[in-house]
Design a protein that fits this description.
With 410 residues, the chain is of the alpha+beta class. It folds into 2 domains: 149 residues, Creatine Amidinohydrolase, Chain A, domain 1 (3-Layer(aba) Sandwich), CATH 3.40.350.10; 252 residues, Creatinase/methionine aminopeptidase superfamily (Creatine Amidinohydrolase), CATH 3.90.230.10. Helix content is 34%, strand content 20%. It is built from 12 helices and 19 strands. The strands form 6 sheets. It has a 6-stranded mixed beta sheet with strand order 4-3-2-1-5-6. The termini are far apart.
């Protein structure tokens, strides 16, 4: 949580932090500013002091909505004057700018550097900056960083945003279901009124129109895969494929709401009827899904939930990562992952070596058991997203029916 920043800085022996870059694709910047649009911004903090946002003049109104202390970059650190001083040398101007910011805001000691910057630009900029500033050690983190730890737990205000993201996502799923059910069927193919088949591409186009209507965006290609394609977990589906009755459809939808937070929801559908093999696989996924949902509690080791799922599926004769790492059939992935400003973040419901994380207040995770048999022509997955409030109460962020069979006309 954001309230943990000073503690985490102390644990990592950081005296300050500096977050760089545009807001687009910059999860750390969005985390600290509330997802407002920013270009070439800086967010900085000394340990024990509040956050400060350095922003462009054109973004002063949106910057004010962040609630942070503000500095107008164009008035205080004018880029045109910096370039003039350095005869148009952009690198020298940027080093000068950052050096002034560091001195003016007394970012002395160990200074953590975060945000987004082209890898080559960072390689040119940061060593030059380090060489020209005194009493400051620039610190980079790889892997589990201060911010990945802070973002692993959400405060109740973030969970309220995630709840709204879940509500809107469920609305879209319902509209997609109604859209499909509004079509007729001929020879077990879903048809449009013009006599052409309804394709996965048509369904996704409709879905995207509903995203726009509800203020959601599609950050990655939504998974709407059918038959054999549903047997490969991240196959997003063939847009040219007609919808057919009796084939499993994995609908994994993970839009982002206006503040940058994701929801993650999967339902498996069979239009009209479900073949016996698909029904049996779905029944098993639903059984272990229900067991895991009943076992979720603060203090439960994340790895235990994955082991429980693997042992259940293996008892039903399916390969899993527990005994067959790298399997392409059966249960092939971990049980779930954290959700927030990235669609996949910590904590992980996996049994990977070193995962000692226990569920705790503020955790938001997906629960998504699945079975995959591409050569048999089907895949099945069920997924809800859940959260533990700051008080430790478990709430389900997903509220949509689990029905496998979707009735159709004709």
């Amino acid at each position: 949580m954001k309230a943990d920043l000073d503690r985490l800085m102390a644990e990592r022996n950081l005296d300050g932090l500096l977050v760089m870059g545009d807001s687009a694709g910059n999860a750390v910047m969005n985390y600290l500013t509330g997802g407002i649009h920013l270009e070439q911004a800086l967010v900085l903090k000394r340990r024990g002091a509040p956050l400060t946002l350095i922003h462009g003049s054109m973004e002063r109104d949106s910057a004010a909505a962040s609630g942070l202390a503000l500095v107008d970059r164009d008035q205080t650190y004018n880029q045109y004057l910096l370039l003039q001083r350095h005869d148009g040398d952009r690198l020298a101007a940027m080093v000068d700018y950052l050096g002034q910011v560091i001195r003016d805001h007394r970012l002395l000691g160990r200074l953590g550097i975060y945000g987004t910057l082209d890898a080559g630009a960072a390689l040119a900029l940061l060593p030059r900056l380090q060489a020209e500033i005194e009493d400051v050690e620039l610190v980079g983190e790889f892997g589990t960083s201060l911010f990945s730890l802070a973002r692993e737990t959400k405060d109740d205000a973030e969970i309220a945003i995630l709840q709204e993201a879940g509500r809107l996502t469920c609305l879209v799923v319902g509209e997609v279901q109604e859209f499909i059910q509004g079509h007729g069927v001929r020879d077990e193919v879903v048809m449009q009124t013009d006599g052409a088949p309804l394709t996965i591409g048509h369904v996704k186009a409709f879905m995207r129109s509903r995203f726009m209507a509800h203020g959601l965006t599609e950050d990655h290609d939504t998974i709407f895969s059918q038959g054999r394609d549903a047997g490969v977990p991240h196959n997003s589906g063939n847009p040219a494929a007609p919808l057919r009755l009796g084939q499993s459809i994995i609908f994994d939808i993970f839009p982002r709401e206006q503040h940058g937070y994701f929801h993650d929801l999967t339902r498996t559908w069979c239009l009209g009827y479900a073949p016996d093999a698909v029904q049996a696989a779905w029944d098993q996924c639903k059984e272990i899904f229900d067991r895991v949902m009943g076992a979720l509690a603060v203090g439960v080791p994340c790895r235990d939930l994955q082991i429980q799922t693997c042992e259940y599926f293996e008892s039903k004769g399916h390969p899993t990562p527990l005994s067959n790492p790298g399997t392409h059939e059966g249960y092939v992935h971990s049980l779930g992952h954290g959700i927030g400003l990235d669609i996949h973040e910590d904590p992980r419901l996996s049994a990977a070596a070193g995962n000692e994380t226990r569920l705790q207040p503020g955790h938001v995770v997906s629960v998504e058991p699945g079975l995959y048999y591409p050569e048999r022509g089907y895949g099945v997955r069920i997924e809800d997203s859940v959260a533990f409030t700051e008080a430790g109460e478990l709430i389900n962020l997903t509220n949509y029916p689990y029905d496998l069979v979707i009735p159709m006309k004709g």
